[in-house]
Amino acid sequence: MKFPNRVKEHRDNLMMSKAELARKAGISVQTLNRIERGEACRVDTQRKILEALHVPVEEKDKIFY
């Protein structure tokens, strides 16, 4: 099952590399690759990514839907 998201789109808009986002979020690049492909991830991981992208948790649906 795929879980579409806009992580890659938002990351690209910020001109941020995968390695930079992964480091800021405290996750591995491998995990970020899986998430950008639409694989499932934990809510805690979503929160870390949102924080690293400077997206308020209240606006989660703009990235993860």
Describe, in plain words, how this protein is organized in 3D:
By secondary structure, the chain is an all-alpha fold. The protein has one domain: lambda repressor-like DNA-binding domains (434 Repressor (Amino-terminal Domain)), CATH 1.10.260. The protein contains four helices and no strands. Helix 2 (18-25) crosses helix 4 (43-52). The radius of gyration is 10 Å and the shape is globular. The model has no long low-confidence stretch (mean pLDDT 97).
Topology:
Elements: H1 7-13, H2 18-25, H3 29-36, H4 43-52
Helix pairs in contact: 2-3, 2-4
Q: Secondary-structure element order, as H and E?
A: HHHH
Rg (C-alpha, Å): 10 Å
Instruction: Give the overall shape.
Output: globular
Number of domains: 1
Instruction: Work out the helicity level.
Output: 40-55%
